[in-house]
Amino acid sequence: MAVRTIKDNVYYVGAIDWQRRLFDSLIPLPDGTSYNAYLIRGNDRTALIDTVDPSREQELLSNLKELGVEKLDYIIANHAEQDHSGLIGRMAELHPESKIVTNPKCKDLLREHLLVSEDRFLTIEDGQSLPLGGKTLQFILAPWVHWPETMFTYLVEDKILFSCDFLGAHLATSELFVESVAEFHEAAKRYYAEIMMPFRNNVQKHLARLAGVDIRVVAPSHGPIHLKAESIIKAYSEWSSDSVKNEVVIPYVSMHGSTQRMVDHLVGELIGRRIVVKPFDLVVTDVGKLAMALVDAATIVIAAPTVLVGPHPLAVYATYLANALRPKVRFAGVVGSYGWGSKMLDTIKAMIPDLKVEVLTPVIVKGYPKPADFEALGKLADEILGKHRQAGLTA
Ligand code: FEO
C-alpha cells in the first residue's frame, strides 16, 4: 500500500487488514481493521509514531522505503499492545540510531512483552515536548484507555492528536479520512463498547483534559482519520456519560423453546409499552452488537434455560462479558426455565458485582410457560416501565 500524506511532512505509513475477522481471539471484526502508523519529518529529526501488527511488517517497511527513510531518530510508543508495538523491537534493530520514546510504564511493558533492552529507551513524562525541528511532539499520558500505560502524542504545529486506540475503530477502508460519518460511527461505537466501555470514568477524565487542547485532526491507531475531531469527541462524550436510554437488552438462549417463548412474550410486552427492546440470541449473535447495545441501555434482562442446575453456559458467557464491560445499565432482570430444579438466579446475581444495578423481579418457570408465567412477564414489563419512568427515560 502506498504512503499517504496527511499534512506537509506528516504521513500515514500503516497497513489495512481487510481479512482479519477476530481480535484477541475474542472480538469479531466484521469490517476488518487497520494498524495505523505515522511518520513525521521535522527539519532536524524524524519520528515514527507506533508500528503495525507484526503480520504486516512488509507493508510498514515498504512504506518507509517509499518515503526514503534511512535514518529514524525516534520511535514513539503510545501503547504496548502488540498490534501497535509488535514491530518496535524490529524497527529499533533496523535503526540502531533510534530511541524508543515512551513513558516509564510503557517502557516496562515493552521490556517484558517484547524483550527490548533498557538502553534503547528515552522515557518521557506527562506534558513533555520533543522538538523535531519545525514540528514538536507533546506527550499526554492517558492511562487506562485501555491499558495502564496508554498515552497520546500531540503534534503541536499541525494540531493533530495521535490518540492510539482511543477514538479509533476497527474498520478497513481505503479512505484515509472519515467520509461516511454514519458508517464510521457504527464501527467506532462497537470499538468503544468492546474496548473502552470498561474504563468509562477514565474516558470522561481524558475527554475533559483534551477539551483544553486545540485539536483539529484526530489520527487514531485503528480506522480512518478524523478531520472533524469534534464529531468523534462528542460521540465519546455521549457514550461515556451517565445518561441511559429507554432501552432493554435481552441476551438469551433457549434449548427446547420455553425460554424462547418467554423472551418473545416479554419483547411484545415491552414494545407495547413503547420501550426499545434488543434481543440477542446468543447461539448466533455477534457479541460486538450485544456490547454496542449495552452502551446506552437502561436495563439488561438475561434469559436462559437451566443446564446442570445453573444457567446455560452461553448465558454464563454473556453475563460474564456484560459484567466485565461494565455498561451503565441500572436495572437487571433474570428470566428462564428449568426442568426439575435451578440455581440460575443466584448464579447470575453473583456474576454481576461490577454492574451497579437494581435486580428486578425474576421470572423463572418450571417447564413450558403457562398463563400465570406470561402474566408475570407482563408484570416484569410493567416494573421495567415504572423504573424507566422514575428515571425520567419515558413518559
Ligand atoms: Fe489496538 Fe490496545 O491495541
Word description of this protein:
- By secondary structure, the protein is α/β, with parallel strands linked by helices.
- The protein has 2 domains: 4-240, Ribonuclease Z/Hydroxyacylglutathione hydrolase-like (Metallo-beta-lactamase, Chain A, 4-Layer Sandwich), CATH 3.60.15.10; 245-387, 3-Layer(aba) Sandwich (Rossmann fold).
- It is 34% helix and 25% strand.
- The protein has helices spanning 57-66, 82-85, 88-94, 104-114, 181-196, 200-210, 229-240, 258-272, 287-294, 313-325, 344-350, 371-390; strands at 4-7, 10-12, 15-17, 22-23, 27-28, 33-35, 38-41, 46-49, 74-76, 99-102, 121-123, 129-131, 136-141, 151-155, 160-164, 217-220, 245-252, 276-281, 297-307, 310-311, 331-338, 358-359, 363-366.
- The chain has a 7-stranded mixed beta sheet.
- Strand 10, helix 4 (104-114) and strand 11 form a beta-alpha-beta unit.
- It binds MU-OXO-diiron (FEO).
